[in-house]
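Priority: low. Protein: Aldolase LsrF. Input follows.
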Amino acid sequence: MPEADEKKEKNFYTEIPQKNKPFFLKGSNNFDWGLKNRLSHIFNPDTKKTVMLAIDHGYFQGPTTGLERIDVTILPLLQYSDTLMLTRGILRSIIPPTYPNGIVLRASGGPSILKELSNEQIAVDIEDAIRLNAAAVAVQVFIGGEYETQSVYNMTRLVDIGQRYGIAVLGVTAVGKNLVRDAKYMRLACRICAELGATYVKTYYVEEDFETITASCPVPVVIAGGKKIPEDEALKMAYNAIQQGACGVDMGRNIFQAQDPVAMIQAVRMVVHKNVKPEQAYEFYQETVAKKRKG
Ligand code: R5P
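Result:
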């Protein structure tokens, strides 16, 4: 038998209204508790931003430069990532289950780099995503591509299933070879993903009018790093994107192909979470590389 609650003086704080704080993330207030909890394992509730480490490139291009041995090159970066974006194959075979942050599982695929990439299908069952404790699933959406409708269908299907179990869906705007990567295209692609239910959207940074992409997208936007550029330029791109309304980066090659990936991800964190100017973050990067050289 439980002990009786014999305390006479209870305090119900009747003068204090119950706290009812809106959820911190743009466009996410009306989700259920489980989905909000998973989003809190992707985005930092204090800064409202995320540094996602994207290492899923192998799903269509095999052992990408810098990802040949994920156990050797990527494991040292995990402690600096807010989230990992990867395939279930790499998650199960290499990532320690003690990784405490959100997992964003690559959930579309099919064609390799040798074929028409936009012809993707859903590549994971929701049961397996749940088994792997995924916070989100990621799906390419090829607006304007040959297989546009199929890729939109992949996303909406995952949104339906994801909503059922409280798993977020990251719509990844993938730009086909013959399409212009500008603000007009990105506004269109991001907005379509959001309208059709993506929990958040990944896009490329564009120099002109990027803020119109984030403003017209009702859910958080994160930027892809894209192909490798010099470290100072990558930091500037991340900084500009954040200043223009991005909620984070989903960066791969510009981190793991950097001369010093550990220093680079730390520098990226500085611009994303602390609004540190890119020049200052780059100085940190250079100093860290120099110190390591000296031994
Ligand atoms: C490509 O579709 C993959 O989703 C990558 O994860 C993505 O492109 C981000 O990686 P990166 O920063 O190397 O562009």
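The pocket of ribose-5-phosphate is lined by residues 54, 56-57, 85, 172, 224-226, 250-254 (CB under 6 Å). Residues 153 and 264 are 36 Å apart (CA to CA).
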